[in-house]
Amino acid sequence: MAAIGGLQITDAGKIYDPGGIHVVAVDNVSLSIAPGEFCVVVGPSGCGKTTLLNAIAGFDQLTSGTIEMDGELLASPGKKLLPGPDRMVVFQHGALFPWKTVLWNVTSGPVKRGQVRMAEAADKARELMGRVGLQGIDDQFPEALSGGQKRRVEIVRALMSNPKVLLLDEPFRALDALTKSVVQEHLLELYDFERKTIFFITHDLEEAIFLADRVAVMTTRPGRIKKIVDVDIPRPRDHHVLTTDRFLELKSELGEAIYEEAKLAFEAGERELA
Ligand code: ADP
Ligand code: MG
């Protein structure tokens, strides 16, 4: 598969300054993500995860540093490449069109842009949905779906645009624990199938280790990279890895780093905006 979707984040910084309050949200973050890598950034609420993702997605600007994708400048102070189908985002609270069917929701983006014809898009959508247990729901409306089904539909929708990178901002946060573990397995299934570069943010350490090739721990605000750990657990993975010795080792190694930061964040009274 072609080596596309590499991200190079260099000394990225973001200061929010509404009315002169000067919040240093992200400070000097450098992170290199290889094409096809599944990178998870984990850190306490308010440490700048969403800020970083927004800069990659083109929703917001950096105040220092640069972000490049495959050598192309995505973001630097005063410049951002507008959001586009090359960087698809899935949020915690998705955005399916409620008055449109599932099939319409997942196919309309690439079809409208002329990327693919409807028949082809429908085939691809059915293939991806079939892989994640979503057969037979093409004609349903989003309100008929469970939270876990909606998240899967949103991920399939994002993949339908054939992005270079998939950006996920705590997509499973609102799900109950059981649903979450099933949907995580489904995401891995899609990752093993498509091997897109994934930039996933969460504050859930187990989720981070279960999914990632590499976990980057961020410090509490101002968000910096505190630690990066390779997750050397072979793929394909399913929930059985959660109880392996290696998983527990990684969890304790990373847990220490995160606990320190979570405590600092709590003491600082951080609360999340987005
Ligand atoms: P995370 O996603 O890790 O919870 P965010 O990136 O949402 O963190 O926020 C990082 C910090 O920046 C937080 O302290 C938050 O309050 C602050 N922040 C986020 N967006 C804005 C904004 N538009 N204006 C001012 N401060 C903001
Ligand atoms: Mg956030």
Features:
single chain, Rossmann fold, 274 residues, binds adenosine-5'-diphosphate, six-stranded mixed sheet, 35% helix, 7 helices, 2 domains, five-stranded antiparallel sheet, alpha/beta, binds magnesium ion
Alpha plus pi helix count:
7
- The secondary-structure class comes to alpha/beta
- Strand order in the largest sheet: 7-8-9-3-10-11
Tell me the overall shape: globular
Question: Which stretches are poorly predicted, pLDDT < 50 over at least 5 residues?
Answer: none
CATH architecture tag of the largest domain: 3-Layer(aba) Sandwich
CATH superfamily of the largest domain: P-loop containing nucleotide triphosphate hydrolases
Distance between the termini: 35 Å
List the bound ligands.
adenosine-5'-diphosphate, magnesium ion
**The biggest beta sheet, please?**
6 strands, mixed
Number of strands: 11
Count of folded domains: 2
Rg for CA atoms: 18 Å
The proportion of residues forming helix, as a percent range, comes to 25-40%
- At the first level of CATH, the class of the largest domain is Alpha Beta
CATH topology of the largest domain: Rossmann fold
Could you walk me through the main structural features you see in this protein, from its secondary elements to its overall organization?
With 274 residues, the chain is an alpha/beta fold. The chain has two domains: 7-86 and 165-268, P-loop containing nucleotide triphosphate hydrolases (Rossmann fold, 3-Layer(aba) Sandwich), CATH 3.40.50; 98-162, no CATH class. It contains seven helices and eleven strands. It has helices spanning 49-57, 102-112, 118-131, 147-160, 177-194, 205-211, 245-267, and strands spanning 7-16, 23-33, 38-42, 64-69, 72-76, 79-80, 87-90, 165-169, 197-202, 214-218, 225-230. It has a six-stranded mixed beta sheet with strand order 7-8-9-3-10-11, with helices on both faces. Strands 2-1-4-5-6 form a five-stranded antiparallel beta sheet, covered by helices on one side. Helix 3 crosses helix 4 (147-160). The chain starts with 6 loop residues before the first strand and ends in a 7-residue tail after the last helix.
